[in-house]
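re: that chain from earlier
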Amino acid sequence: MQPSFINDCGVLTDYLVETIAECGRSKAVVEIAMDADHRFRMGVSMTYSYSGFGWAPCMDGEAFATFAEALDAGIGLLVKHWHKPFPGDPASVHVELRELLDQVLARRRQPSLF
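^ sequence. v structure.
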């Protein structure tokens, strides 16, 4: 991995996208970039049929010594900021969010060997 370009706002523009969960067109990802000091910065993104959230890796965020540490921290942030469906949302949204979250939690408990 090469250091990423940093734009005028402190956002690292070149990053790897690690898909953590996927369900149809819904997706939860962790985005990881390397800064000029060879430390890893991460951002997260989660989109589903009704909404989503996310932010890109930036210099204002915490720096990590390894890619794996940044990935673990990103998964933790996905869980922390996870959307909870409103009671009035269709049942399909409730199912969609639950299926995505189950995948994220499984990934958190069982890290990849690669």
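Residues 16-109 form a domain with the Enolase-like; domain 1 fold (CATH 3.30.390).
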